[in-house]
Fold this protein.
Amino acid sequence: MEDKIRVYGFKRNKDLYLMMLPFLVLFFIFVVLPVSVSIIISFTDFNLLQFPKFVGLSNYRRLFLNDDIFITAVKNTFVIAVITGPIGYLLAFLMAWLINELPAKIRAILTIIFYAPSISGNVYLIFTIIFSGDPYGYLNAKLLEWGIIDSPILWLQDTQYMLPVVILVSLWMSLGFGFLAFVAGLQTVDKTQYEAGEIDGIRNRWQELWYITLPNMRPQLMFGAIMSITSALGVGDITVALTGFPSPNYGAHTIANHLLDYGSVRMEMGYASAIAVVLFGMMVFTNLLIQKFIKRVGT
Amino acid sequence: MAPFKVSTVSLEKKQNLRIKYKRAPNAFIKFFTNTRSNRSVWGNILLVAFLTFLAFLFLFPVIFMVNNAFKPLHELLKFPPDIIVRTPTLNNFLELRVIFQDSVIPLSRYIFNTVFILVIGTAGQIIFASMAAYPLAKYKFFGSEVISRIIVLSLMFSPVVTAVPNYVIISKLGLIDTYWAIILPAFAATLGLYLMKNFMEQIPSSLIEAASIDGASEFVIFWRVIMPSVKPAWITLFIVSFQTMWGVTGDMYIYKENLKTFSYALGQIARVGIARQGVMAAVSLIMFLIPTITFIIAQSNVIETMTTSGLKE
């Protein structure tokens, strides 16, 4: 299945190594090094002022045994991620695929429209007005007018409603980089395969999707999966923008919020790094599962 | 003879019509008249209706934002706000201009900083990421598997905790208060490489082998064969990279006022308080418009590629 050229020896292929060199050097300095340092710091007590003190696994022990807020954060993150991850991913693919059916110019316009929320910086503003707890907030005003509710609902302060609102807004934001990759990927699928499929008796869009499009899109599907995983499990900006930081009663507190709290407010870098490592582990594990699944697509 | 003549005219007319139709087959009409046997007309109609509905849903906040930029202050402070502006005004933009006229650092300086970072950062990211992606996507060699894995893993590590080590590294390299503090880390962004690599994996190896038998060097193959066939990928990367670099404030690494970016300056202006609400709305619109316009230009290029790329087995 894998279509790669095998090469041996350094001398004959020094061009290949040369091409990778600039990136790899920068990658090592600005990515590998800081990440490795962070992982090491997660085993220390480090407040940025004094030299880090090695404390073994105590940060991790504290995280899982003595930090109730972290457990709340894990629960909230799971609730949000389990819904927004898969649905957001499917939505991004579905939209890219539907758009792909349309004539080129209309497709371009729709791509921009659907991606627009990811470009505009302050899209949350409108949602804080829609879901405002004020009786005149858009949603409350309408619900009161229709007689569905008697008193305004505090959408963004009531722990009962916070997570659903966050999930809704996350889904609305889910057409991001992954969506663009899907749109671009669909355009690289060989057109002659579709014509051949038509002759071979592929009867409708859905068969074509399963037997031709999806198998051809595997690399993009992997890319989209990574994007969905990192944004679903790393959810944080949305909760801060909608419900504040920290959210009332930690009702929408996520792992990323917890990380931000210790990493840039309390400056307990050792503890913050431990949170980052745990989050990292969760993402890696989810990614492994999904990659296995994507390999089976279209068979 | 007369009836015969009439009939030829009408035939000619018919033929003209047919040619006219052939010459200008409106893509949208063609789409509805069912050009492929495995597509149903009703399916197409349903599809367009559904997408139009969604488009409005997605555009709603954008419409709100655009209208906000033209609202006078009393309309902005109204609650609940109207979506559509009642008495549109350009005051917000004029006020923004006045603020920049009074600023110590001229506006042009901020714009130059942003343009410099944008151009070098985006171009460099695309070139370095693509160059490294090609060997990793199409060749198997010592270490290729390990490097690919590390790159995927690095995508999943939170940047919040790496901020401190990053700062130390950048200051040790003497990059504080230079454009390079923003540009060099952008070159190392793994997301771009991962995107390019995934697209390049779809290029059949036989194509590369054929080019190599013809005597092309790896660099030539990369530039002439690989890059043109993954044009949709690097245009996508261009869009996202542009968007990120445009939004960069650099406030962690750049302290000299004359080296700060346009987005930083705009952000500072908007942050002052409630009296600046109008300016803030104008700033939001500007921050949104520049990447959107770039996106439109880039996206129309993606569509062009579709018809020209034919590099498949």
